[in-house]
Amino acid sequence: MADTATAPAAGPGTPAPVAEAAGISKRFGATVALRDARIAVAPGESHALVGRNGAGKSTLVSILTGLQQPDTGSLRFSGEPAPAVGDIDAWRSRVACVYQRSTIIGELTVAENLFLNRQSGGAVRPIRWKQLRRRAGELLGEYGVAVDPTARARDLTVEQRQFVEIARALSFGARFIILDEPTAKLDARGIERLFDKLRDLQRQGVAFLFISHHLQEVYDLCTTVTVYRDAAHILTSPVAELGHQALVEAMTGESAGVATAAGRPRATRANTTEVLALDALTLPGACEDISLAVRSGEVVGLAGATASGNVQVGEAIAGLHRARTGRISVRGRTVRTGSVPSALAAGVGFVPEDRHLQGLVGNRSVAENATLTVTDQLGPFGTVLPARTRAFARNMIRDLDIKTPGAATPVSALSGGNQQKVVVARALATVPDVLVAIRPTNGVDVKSKEFLLARIRQVADDDKAALIVSDELDDLKVCDRVVVMFHGRVVAEFDRGWKDEDVVAAIEGVSGGTAHAIASPLSASSGADEHGR
Ligand SMILES: Nc1ncnc2c1ncn2[C@@H]1O[C@H](COP(=O)(O)OP(=O)(O)OP(=O)(O)O)[C@@H](O)[C@H]1O
Question: Alpha-carbon distance 176 to 297, whole Å?
Fold first, then answer.
């Protein structure tokens, strides 16, 4: 395999890399996060950084952006040594990072966010709001970002927020932008628009370091790819010279195997019973008249783009939204909508969309987080025995292959993908009758993804039911059936053997699908708002 990173340093006439890290090592206690790692990003290059969960990608990002100092190694930007620690303006003019979780402040306007901490141009001069808005408008216009500078940031879509963050980074003079899983919360259209914008900026000489677990995106967007494995640099290669299988092998260190049978849809069984039923469910502002049944042994996919309302339906089953009309039942018993305890008591297990907001308590241990829903099983008479909690957690860590130094480690010290596994572990801990999993493989690497989906499949195999709410085709492929929503309504249903393009078309509202014809009033009238909230 090619390894251009070992090429000699740039000669005369070749511009120095916009960012170059060499010999980088970083430990957190006993954990080695990076070992003698390196990367070099050329001007105007779109460079992918890929690796399994815990490989060290985010740690490198925090070093490249000055948030953490490496234990060893050197860092240069356009040939110059990295700025001093704490010289925020100097760092900002060299590099910026757009994270999956936005760093802009929801309560402020777009203009205020763009010029945060530099509103007045001087310590004592008052802020000139009109001028600020005008400058913000000019800045957004310059980078082709169609967002109103006076809008509140919290009213923007995920995509618009990312564009504002990119514009802010460029306005500091940075010509190197790191994108850490930027597509995780975007639907297909949003991803397309983000990529168009990135290609535009690349033509203007901006370089990108792009981190994603969606390998197809690497092929669509990037020219160079670097692979890390177990804290070390494995290879750097032109994307065009590295096939998919070779890429996966470099990430895993193993020959790429075929998908496990456990993750695949299974043959039809007799004697099934209805486990979950939605009956003409209407959720204000999200969906109308949704009817759906999931039988024992079945994994059903509920697909849809951001504004389709599919996430809200999943959340409603878990008790997070009250229905205007309609009914949710588990094994024939009505579940009170809008009541999490009622959903839990009915046997609903839940993997939420956002593990940070709805999922984990960062400063608590892996063991505590994984057992939050089963404290009643951890000791007699309402007590929680630490030894039993740890034993319970150790089983989960083994079961879901969670990479952590131990059950007592705070969950915030885990890599993103491993945190997601803790969330799934917690949902499975209750041995739910119905598992509702929203984008369950979010941030999970290609290998662990197969594994997690196989565990969800197992839930159904035990005569239970699972609903996977997702627009990821890989997630939907393990399902026995896929139901597609568009603007708050069910518009199509596909049995196994569906073609990617048909499901994608239905998600986009382009066609009603080919498998089952469903009366599909593709009207947006009843739909969710622009954010699908
Ligand atoms: N603040 C921290 N304290 C302790 N350990 C940490 C800390 N940050 C990262 N680690 C550990 O360093 C290793 C590398 O983590 P990192 O977040 O860089 O991985 P990653 O490649 O970004 O993974 P993912 O794809 O899951 O986001 C992991 O084992 C992680 O648990």
Answer: 49
Q: How far apart are CA 31 and CA 373, in angstroms?
A: 29
Higher pLDDT, 283 or 400: 283
From the CA of 418, give the closest atom in ligand 1: 26
Q: For residues 317 and 100, what is the distance between their CA atoms, to the nearest angstrom?
A: 26
How far is ligand 1, taken at its centre, from the CA of residue 16, in Å?
A: 29
Tokens representing 456 are 């969800």
Cross-strand pairs, 495: 481
Residue pLDDT, tens place only, 386-424: 666 777 788 888 888 888 888 888 888 899 899 999 889
Angle at Cα 421 formed by Cα 417 and Cα 425, nearest 5°? 170
ipTM: 0.98
- Rounded to an integer, what distance in angstroms lies between the CA atom of residue 469 and that of residue 460? 15
Strand ranges of the sheet holding 232-238, from the earlier edge strand across to the other edge: 96-99, 176-180, 207-211, 46-50, 224-229, 232-238
Cα(413)–Cα(353) distance, integer angstroms:
20
The yes-or-no answer to whether 4-95+174-252 and 258-347+432-533 have a common fold is yes
Domain residue extents for the chain:
4-95+174-252, 105-173, 258-347+432-533, 357-431
Could you give the CA distance from residue 469 to residue 242 in angstroms, rounded to a whole number?
Answer: 32
CB 393 within 8 A of CB 371: yes
Determine the residue type at 354: D
Contact call for residues 232 and 37 (beta carbons, < 8 A)? yes
Q: Going by C-beta distance under 8 Å and a sequence separation of 6 or more, which residues neighbour residue 98?
A: 162, 165, 166, 169, 177, 178, 179, 180, 182
- For residue 492, give Cα distances in angstroms to 267, 489, 502: 22, 9, 10
CB within 8 A of 261, min separation 6: which ones?
A: none
State the amino acid at position 466 in one-letter form: A
State which of 211, 412, 415, 448 you would mutate to test the pocket of ligand 1, scoring each by most atoms of that ligand within 8 A of its C-beta.
415
**Position 522 pLDDT exceeds 60:** no
Give the closest residue (by CA) to ligand 1 atom 6. 413
For ligand 1, atom 4: residue with the closest CA: 413
Q: 258-347+432-533, what's its fold?
A: Rossmann fold (3.40.50)
Q: Which helix (H) or strand (E) holds 449?
A: helix 446-461
Superfamily of domain 4-95+174-252 in CATH is P-loop containing nucleotide triphosphate hydrolases (3.40.50.300)
**What does residue 358 show for φ and ψ, rounded to 5 degrees?**
-115, -5
479-279-350 Cα angle (round to 5): 50
pLDDT category at 11 given cuts 50, 70, 90 is: low
